[in-house]
Specification:
alpha/beta, 6-stranded parallel beta sheet, 7 helices, 6 strands
């Protein structure tokens, strides 16, 4: 296992999208860490993500973006304007246009349907359009596909996107850091996402470091 690359300058604005795959704890922890690291976050979420939130986290993810924005900003101590949440049909939102793209985007968790739509260049909702914008503007796009096993269709779509420079980052936690909790496993994956974004964090020790820093803050 090779050591992770040293983080580069952190992006200023990062779009995060929750879709209906299992693994919403990864996405929510990512939003927390980005905000605590001082990044601006544009959050998008699908209708099925609301179902997943209830199933996996006993969280009633509100249907109204303004309510989600207020709730998460209070929970994570976001500064005014640091977190913005947009509806899936909000076509005048900044992520919908290449004239105002984010520095990077992460779809976490990412369904196979969303991945296929992105690979096909579809823009049927704001999540798909935002990803299309990020690709065409040559910005960083990270997809966190939570599915197993992968079919040939899934793999072909992932390969197509990887050849375009999209980072395919399945949420496969390692065990060499001796995780003691589910949160440790979540943090392992989120740490890898933050590395791809060039965002500093202290979620866990890097390979070769003497001791893990489990339980430390995101930033």
């Amino acid at each position: 296992m090779a050591p992770s690359a040293s983080p580069a300058t952190s992006p200023r604005t990062i779009t995060v999208a929750f879709t209906g795959a299992s693994g919403l704890p990864y996405g929510l922890r990512l939003v927390e860490c980005l905000l605590r690291a001082g990044q601006r976050v544009w959050l998008l979420y699908s209708q099925v993500a609301q179902i997943v939130a209830r199933q996996e986290m006993d969280w009633n993810l509100p249907a109204r973006p303004a309510e989600v924005e207020a709730e998460l900003a209070a929970r994570f101590g976001a500064a005014p304007g640091q977190l913005r949440v947009f509806g899936r049909e909000e076509w005048f939102a900044p992520p919908a246009s290449g004239s105002n793209p984010p520095d990077a985007m992460v779809v976490c968790p990412c369904t196979m349907a969303t991945l296929a739509a992105i690979a096909g260049g579809l823009s049927q909702n704001l999540i798909e359009r935002a990803a299309d914008v990020v690709i065409k503007e040559a910005r960083k796009l990270v997809l966190v596909p939570r599915e197993t096993p992968y079919s040939a269709i899934h793999l072909e779509n992932m390969l197509k996107l990887a050849r375009l420079g999209v980072c395919i980052l399945p949420p496969n936690p390692g065990f060499y850091h001796h995780p003691q909790s589910v949160q440790d496993l979540v943090d392992f994956v989120v740490a890898r996402i933050l590395d791809q974004l060039g965002v500093e964090h202290r979620l866990m020790a890097r390979w070769g470091e003497a001791a893990a820093r489990a339980g430390e803050a995101c930033g």
